Structure formats: structure tokens, C-alpha cells
Amino acid sequence: MRVQLAPSPASSIRQRLGAAACLLLAGSVPAAAQTSVAPGWQLETTGLFYGEQARARVVEPMARLARQFANGRALSLGLAVDAITGASPTGGLPTGTVQTTTSASGQASTTTADAVPTHAFQDLRGAVDVGWVEPLGTLVSASTSAHYSQEKDYASLGGGLKTSVDLLGRLVTLTVGGGFNRDRVFPTGGTAMGLAPDSTPRLPGDNAKEVRTGLVGLSRVVSRRWLLGATGSQTRETGYLTDPYKVVSLVDPVTQLPVAQVNEERPSERTRDDVLGSSVYHFEQDIFYANYRYYWDDWGVRSHTLDMKVRHDLSSESWVQPHVRLYAQSPARFFVFGLTQGQPLPEFASADERLGPLRTATFGATYGFHVPGHRGEFTLRAEYMYQWLVGRPPTAIAPIPGTGGGDNVRRSIAAEDDGANGGGQHLGTNIGTLLIGYTVPF
Amino acid sequence: MRRRKLIALMLLAGLGIPGCATVHPWDRDLMAKPTMRFVPLPHEMAVDDHIYFSKEGSTGGMDAAGGGCGCN
Amino acid sequence: MGLEHLEGYFLGRFEAMASPCELLVDSDDERTARAALEAASAEALRIERKFSRYRADNIVHAINHSAGQPVDVDEELAGLLDYAATCHEISNGRFDITSGVLRRVWTFDGREHAPDPTAIAAALALVGWGRVTWRDRRITLPAGMEIDLGGLGKEYAVDRAAAQVAAATDAAFLANFGGDLFASGPRRGGQPWLVGVEDPATPGSGQKLRLELARGALATSGDARRYVMVGGRRLGHILDPRTGWPVAGAPRSVTVMADRCTEAGTLATLAILRGPDAARFLADQGVQHWVVE
Fold first, then answer.
1. C216 to chain B: nearest residue by CA?
2. C23: which of A306, C36, C81, C245 lies 20 to 30 Å off by Cα?
3. A405 — pLDDT class (breaks 50, 70, 90)
């Protein structure tokens, strides 16, 4: 005989009893009897394999060791090593002729007529971080963290502090946090002079950058199945914010072809804001995660991000989690595809596609499983990302006089155009990632 | 910018208002599961934050003290 | 304290509150099961030590020997006393934690005894929650009176222990302290727990009823093991504080299901205190129940 707690009209005695029992059991238990999470160690190792089509490749092994203490305190130590090779766009425009680029790191690359110029690079980055969680009473918890990372041309040192408070019978959690980073940028070959021709000698020395962040978050248990949260944060960056290797093409007004390059230049201050709404909903078996972020900053960049995941248990030992992420960005005020030669130079300019009208779509899934009888859990994630720019750079309209390949050139550039009425030009990049993880408590 | 900040603040405050339905202590069974949190796989989020930070123009919303890198 | 690995779950056993206690954990991980068992037994023993009337070193003993002086109590005991006061009011005086002194008059060993009316009357003079001053976390018992939390203790311990286990693991579990039980959720794969309800006519053997319990609490009240024979009539051990006698015409066994064990146990006790009206009372409350007359 199956017995269900079917809802039934409760009499006043039962209601009063239920309320009285609720009150009794909601009372706190003497602190000595409280144990939250079982104390112990946990080791988490992850390996990332990241590849962009004809561009950058990254291999990154990471490890994290965490220790949970009986009184609720926790220690976490993380290590990561990034090996990056490949090519990255310079910000220059495709030309009608074969183009050669030299980069500040001394690498040279040759690109064909319709390809976006790139420069090759190779870098190794190491990062270490440490964190500590300290409960302050039964309702309040504080955590601090510090991190350091170093690569060939960049070093970052920073830390943060966060406090969480449980309110309204532990249904609502308020979080307040802040962080500070002090970075040093020391580009290979020296720092470029902004908006000067890219052959201008570079300046030696370090450049400083400071980042300050504050955030406020609220999360709420809405019902037995539903958790909702919202976070707002603001970040202020000051110092050297320009990309030292990127250039902007100068386009000849007559031929509409790039003829020279200048270094890019960005403001030395940036205020970034964002609001994030998150939801976790537990259906009968599956859990649905969704979050939406709206971002804006004083460079004019605005973006929308929608991220959704579903966690589905395949058995008691394995699960799968498909994932979709959609991203749309509108460009910085000073973003240009190219500048016209002969016109006065603006105060700031950048052709870095990451500040441009960018769209990213990500599709992937994670598969996780326990080996029976063993305590560790493996996760395997494969994802495909496609990133493209929307908009129309000033490309060739007329064939280049004197070159037999004029029509070919026009066709090869226009091939990326979206239709006769000149819709968006999609400089799309295909990216694939593979993430392997292993977590084991001991 | 000011109006957006106000909307953002209202959104945050809205979550704090006590709702009409209360969640009893014995209804906390699902919420106690480790998968019932905003970030079910923290190691994936750390990797993603880094990837999207270096490929896009926005910063993440989750953590105040993220690390820096020379990728944006 | 023992831990056994059975088919797909662990069975932990320990002794507390003079009852065999069991904890079933739906997990194949021994570490998880052990942590859960330790959490449950630690909490059960803590509650027993703190509230048992058989101990000479706890707050209950201090209150019962306070000779009419006021005693300050902590938050947890205050909660229990408030709950007991509410039950006293809801039941129109039938539920009374001061009725413990009547146990000196009755012996529930299953044998024939003749009650002594003088002794009962004398004991009744020391019974009555209405004579207790309970206010501002301070209790004042007239000299000679006692409080007995035995009618609440086991069910309360089940709920508290369940909270401790839920904090230690997210595996589904069922805690059964001497027949008062709570299931936190269905087992992996959605299967419910299988619970047998004992036949009061044949205690210790066979089951009258088999239930599938996914989530919730069950408590049973009755005279299966503790009873007295008076004039050939069988009387249970639950005493009516208004008469000093065991409740007349009460069913042999009452099992109630509710969200929490404390609630289930109180409803079962309130039902028995209604005597012949037990089944109707439970039906009026709209709870799942099984009554054996």
C-alpha cells in the first residue's frame, strides 16, 4: 500500500500542532551539537585543451586542494599552468595583397589577401591562489582569497574579501564582497606609443594597472524546488588598459585599401557595471540552471549573456549536463574596423574584435561519472564555440587598378559579405574545447 | 546609466522581500543537495570565466576577486 | 553501535532512550553512512542525557528537585516546554507533562494489579500543568511536582537527529528510534522505504501492515508492550491526568503519519487520550492513520 502525504483539509488542532512543531524544530540547537559539512580533504585536477581554428591553442593543467575543518572553516589552494601558442588577430584589416606582419615579439607571419592579419605568439603562464573560509556565528560567513599570476609580459597580484549573511530563517542570503588587483604590464619589445605608426620605436619599462571591484548579491529560496539570485557589481580599472600588440589599419580614402598601421590606444580608466540574475529549479529528476547577465561600461560596450544548463542523472553513478550560452555585445565607442588616412586621428581607437560588435554562441555538454567502488568523480566536457563580428569594415568596392587580380580580390573579400545589400560581415572563428576533470575526497 | 543602476538595485531589493509562501524546514531536502546551487561545477566556471574574459569585452558577474591576466 | 552494509543501503544500530534505534542510509559509501550514524546517535544521546528523568545530572532533575524554587531554562528546553503547553491547551488538559508522578501508582508489567484509590488521589494532587508557572524562560514547579518529557522525547529526538544527518549527508535516510521514524526522501531511483507496522496482538512477530514511505514521519502509540491488567481488563500505560487512571476504551494501537515525527507522535498520543473517539479524532484531523482496537 503506497502512502502519500496527500494534501487534506487540516483541522485547527492539526494546524496548531504543525505550527507549534515547526516553531520547536526551528529553534537552534546548542552549538556543540552542530556539524555542517563532514571534515576532510578534497583534490580536484582539471585539464583544459582549447583550440581556435587556425589561431590560438591552449593547454592548461590545473589542480586544487581543499581542506574542510569540523568547525566550518575551509582552506583552498589552487595552481594552474597555461601554455598558449598560435596566432592572434592584430586588429589590422585584410588587404588586397599578400601582407606580412611583424609583431613586437619578433615573430613574422604572412597572410593571404582575404585573411585577417595575425601575429604568432607563444606564452607560458603560471597562477597560484589561496582561499580561506571562516564562519562567524551560525548565520554569517566570511571568506578571503589572494592570487598571483605571472606570464612573459604580465604579472597580477590581488586579493578579495566576501561576507555572507543568512536572513529570514535562512531563506535569504545577502553577500557583499570586494576585490583589489595590482597588475604590471611589460610588453615584449617595449610599450607601443598610442596612435603612432607601428614602426615607431617602443618605450621600455613597466606599466601599472589597478582594478577595484565591489559586489552585492542576494539569493532566495523561493520554494522547495526553486532558488533565485541576483548580483550587481562594479569594477574600476585605472592605468595601462591598452593591448600592447594590437594595431589599427589606416585606409586610403580612394582605393579603400589599408595602407598603413598605427598602434591602438585606449583610455586609461574604465568603469564596468553588471547585473546578473540566476535561477536554479529542481524538476522531478532534472535540475535546470539559467542565468542572464547585462553588462555595461563607460567605454560604450554593452552586452547580454544568456547561459542555460540542464543536469540530468543517467543513473546513480553518472550524469550528463548539456549547456548553451549565447552572447551579444555592442562595440566600444572608440572601436573602429579601420581609420581613414589623412583624417585627424581620434583620441582613442582600437580595432580589437573583442571590443567590437561581437557575438558568441556556445554549445556543449559535460558527462560525469563515479567509478563504482571508488570515491572519485570524473567529468568530461566538450564544447563548441562560434564567434563572429557583425558590421561592415570599409573594404574594397572598386578593383585595384593595375592588378590583374582586382576582381578576384573584390570577390574574395566580398565573399564574407552577407548579401548584396551589404549586410554583416562575419569574420567567424570556430573554437573547440575539451575539459577533463577528476575530483576525489580523502 | 543612472536609470539602469536603479533598475538593478530594485531587482536586488525585490528578492529580499519576504514572500507569501514560506519554506518549512522539512522542505529543505532538495536545497541541501550540492547540485542545488548557482554554480554546480566550480572548476568549470573558473575555466569559463578565463576563456570568456580573454575572448570577449565583458567581465563575469560572480566573483569579486578574480585573477588578472594579459589577455584582455 | 553497529554498521551493516546491506543490499544498496547501510543499517546502523545503537541504543538510546531505552529503545533500539536504527538508521538506514541509502548509500554505498561507508564513510557517508558512518558519518550519518555518528551524527544521529550523538544527537539522540545528547537529547537523552539532557532531558531524561532517570538521570541525576541534568536540567530536568534540577527542575524536579527544585522544591518550589524557580529554575531558568535554555532555549531548547524552553521550546519543548512551550510545545508541551500548546499540547496541553489543544487537548483540553489531557496532554500533561506533569502526569509523570502517577507512574508511582501504577505498574505496567502486564500482570494483574489492584489500584489504590488513596494513592491515586494523593498523586493527582501533584498533577496539573495549570499549577506550574512557566513564563520568561523560567519555570516554577510546586514542591513535589515533576515534569516528564518522555511523551515527547523520542519523537523530538528523531526530528533533531534527522536534521543532523541531513547536514552530514545528502543521501536519503530513514531514522527509526524504537518505532518512531522519519524518512528524509525516497531512495536512489525513486523507490520508497518499506515500513512494517507491528500487530499489537502479536508484538515482536509478524506485521499487520506494510507501508511504502517516501518521505515523512510515522509514530505509534499503544499498549502493546506496557500494560496492566485490572479486573481482567487490559489497560494501556497512557494515563489520563484528569482521573489518574489509564485512558478508558483506548485503541490497542494508533499509528499516525505527519510531516515531522514530533507532530506525528503528539497526534498519536492525543488520539489515545480520546479513548474510544481516537479514530474519529484522527479522521477529523485529516491525517493518515491506522487504529487497531
1. B26
2. C81
3. very low
Average pLDDT, chain A: 80
d(CA A438, CA A442): 13
**Touching partners of C (3+ C-beta pairs < 8 Å):** A, B
Cβ atoms of C97 and C129 within 8 Å: the answer is: yes
Q: Is residue B21 part of a domain?
A: no
Element housing C118 (H / E): helix C117-124
- Enumerate residues 210 to 229 of chain C having a beta carbon within 8 A of any beta carbon in chain A: 210-216
Specify if B7 maps to a domain.
Answer: no
The yes-or-no verdict on residue A264 having pLDDT over 50 is yes
Total beta-carbon pairs less than 8 A apart between chain A and chain C: 102
Burial A340-368 (b: 16+ CB within 10 A, else e): eeeeeeeebbbbbbbbbbbbbebebbbeb
pLDDT at A420 over 70: no
Q: Which of B26, B31, B33 to mutate to test the interface with A (most CBs of A within 10 A)?
A: B31
Range of the domain at B48: 33-60
Provide the CA A45 distance to its chain's centre, in angstroms. 20
* Closest Cβ–Cβ partner in B12, B52, B59 for A235: B59
Residue A357's closest CA among A384, A385, A382, A391?
A391
Q: Which of B24, B26, B34 sits opposite C170 (nearest CB)?
A: B34
Q: Long-range contacts of range A415-421, CB-CB < 8 Å, 24 or more positions apart?
A: A415/A114, A416/A114, A417/A392
**ipTM of the complex model:** 0.84
Helix (H, G, I), strand (E, B) or coil at A13: helix
Q: Give the C-alpha separation, C133 to A392, whole Å.
A: 85
* Contact flag C185-B29 (C-beta cutoff 8 Å): yes
Cα C197 from Cα C210, distance rounded (Å):
6
B32 has a chain C CB within 8 A of its CB: yes
Number of domains in chain B: 1
The architecture that CATH gives domain A48-441 is: Beta Barrel (2.40)
Q: How sure is the predictor about A110, in pLDDT bands with cuts at 50, 70 and 90? A: low
What residue ranges define each of the domains in chain C, with the CATH number in brackets?
1-53+149-191 (3.10.520.10)
Provide, as residue numbers in chain C, all residues whose Cβ is less than 8 Å from the Cβ of B26.
259-260
- Binned at pLDDT 50, 70 and 90, residue C145 comes out as very high
The C-alpha cell at A161 is 574579501
Which of A102, C123, C11, C133 has its CA nearest to residue C115?
A: C123
Q: What is the pLDDT of residue A324?
A: 97
What is the nearest CA distance from A330 to chain C, expressed in angstroms? 44
Give CA–CA dist C190/C219, Å, rounded: 23
B37 part of a folded domain: yes
| Record: contact B67-A435, CB cut-off 8 A | no
Nearest CB to A183 within list B41, B62, B68: B68
The amino acid sitting at C163 is A
Assigned C-alpha cell, B71: 589577455
Task: Give the pLDDT confidence of A116-171 residue by residue, as tens digits.
Answer: 777 777 889 999 999 999 988 778 899 999 999 998 888 999 999 999 998 876 67
- Band (pLDDT 50/70/90 cuts) for residue A414 is very low
Provide the pLDDT for residue A403: 41
Choice among A247-261, A289-303, A418-432 with the minimum mean pLDDT: A418-432
Task: Calculate how close chain B gets to C96, using CA atoms only, in Å.
Answer: 27
Share of chain A above pLDDT 90, in %: 42
Give residue limits of the domains in chain A. 48-441
